Amino acid sequence: MRDAHTLYITAGSGNSFKPMLVLRQRGDAGPAEKVRIRSVDVLAGETRSASFLALNPRGQVPFLVTADGKGLGESNAIAWFLSEGTALMPAEPFHRAQALQWMIFEQTALEPNISPARFFSHIVPQLAAEHADDFLRWHRDGCVGLAVLDAHLRQRPFVCDHGYSVADIAVYGYTHLAGEAGFDLADFPAIGVWMARVRAQPGYLGVTPLLSA
Amino acid sequence: MRDAHTLYITAGSGNSFKPMLVLRQRGDAGPAEKVRIRSVDVLAGETRSASFLALNPRGQVPFLVTADGKGLGESNAIAWFLSEGTALMPAEPFHRAQALQWMIFEQTALEPNISPARFFSHIVPQLAAEHADDFLRWHRDGCVGLAVLDAHLRQRPFVCDHGYSVADIAVYGYTHLAGEAGFDLADFPAIGVWMARVRAQPGYLGVTPLLSA
């Protein structure tokens, strides 16, 4: 399979979920290269193994290795790359910039708060007590971010004016897992309406069945 | 000037510097719309004024208002938008994704550490003592990020394989100010070589004269 990209993911991760949902939803218009999926067990230390670090010295997933051997990190950059040439990629320059704005917002205001709070309360709860102070900060800062997103989504059906796009997938990645991180999404009604809209898109599949497949 | 975008910036900010450097370096190939610059005094509270919050409810600069009245936040998204159609924007999809990877890295691994450390040690040093614990974290995490960037730049002349791009401008924004944040950039020699390369690009102008002009 020299003509295939390889996407390394880990089960249950909101960041790994993003490029997987792009692959589910991009339809037949995507790039010619197929994408094979390799599941890596972060909790078992596989991302710190010599073989994985040789691929990606940062030891992070998701990670993409192109058919010609080039590496690409950052979940939102991978999702962007896999969306090029499909209906998920905004065609207008301003809409692309809007998509980027919210994909950067996701990585700075949502993911850094929701992801660790979810990890220590949902995935390794035996370690949660060591992070009591961190939880206060994650919940405080995460609620600020969710309130900004909620206000934005009160005005429009999707994250950017293009319509449903890679930016919705990126922002949805951890937002839809916020309940598992101890956030009450009932406080953010426009996010709830938007999440239902995302789930209604053709090809949608949730994080768990998708990643355990 | 209805045919002009308006870019709101603040003097001395690494984030505001990025779209300003794009405007200096994009040449004549850029979008038709002119960009007028409005300087906002953050320290004097102008980003919290009712008139500015009506433009951008998040109260942040840089912020762009397009000629047709649409708002765009996030320094790297603004830099991206202003680079569309110019030599600063990678033409190849993989190169665009690489650019995004490092622009997201900049906002998650560099800016959140270098920017506050610089703010409290260089801009409002009278408040630095209140942040002693934060400085330890900013310097520890910032050095991790700078080491990743240094290793990357040992392999190549610019951040992405396209050549000099908007990603170099975005990453340079705060990296070149790290000395003012208490980082010793002599520890990262490949970054030093790359910064000299950025400064040698046509149209380069440093953060202070550019923003005080």
Structure notes:
2 copies of one chain form a homodimer. Helices cover 50% and strands 8% of the residues of chain A. With 213 residues, chain A is α+β, with helices and mostly antiparallel strands. In chain A, helix 1 (14-25) links the parallel strand 1 (4-9) and strand 2 (34-39). The first copy, chain A, has helices at 14-25, 50-55, 75-83, 93-123, 132-153, 166-175, 189-199, 207-212; strands at residues 4-9, 34-39, 63-65, 71-72. The first copy, chain A, has a 4-stranded mixed beta sheet. Residues 209-213 of chain A have low confidence and may be disordered. The A-B interface holds A 31, 57-58, 66, 70, 72-74, 76-78, 80-81, 84-85, 93-94, 96-98, 100-101, 103-105, 107-108, 112, 148, 151 and B 31, 57-58, 66, 70, 72-74, 76-78, 80-81, 84-85, 93-94, 96-98, 100-101, 103-105, 107-108, 112, 148, 151, 161.
Properties at a glance:
8 helices, 213 residues, 4 strands, homodimer, Glutaredoxin, Glutathione S-transferase Yfyf (Class Pi), Chain A, domain 2, disordered C terminus
- The domain count of chain A comes to 2
Summarize the amount of helix of chain A as a percent range.
40-55%
Shape of chain A: globular
The tally of beta strands of chain A, per DSSP, is 4
CATH architecture of the largest domain in chain A: Up-down Bundle
Give the termini separation of chain A: 21 Å
Quaternary structure state of the chains depicted: homodimer
Q: How many H/I helices of chain A?
A: 8
- Radius of gyration based on Cα positions of chain A: 17 Å
CATH topology of the largest domain in chain A: Glutathione S-transferase Yfyf (Class Pi), Chain A, domain 2
Provide the low-confidence segments of chain A as ranges.
209-213
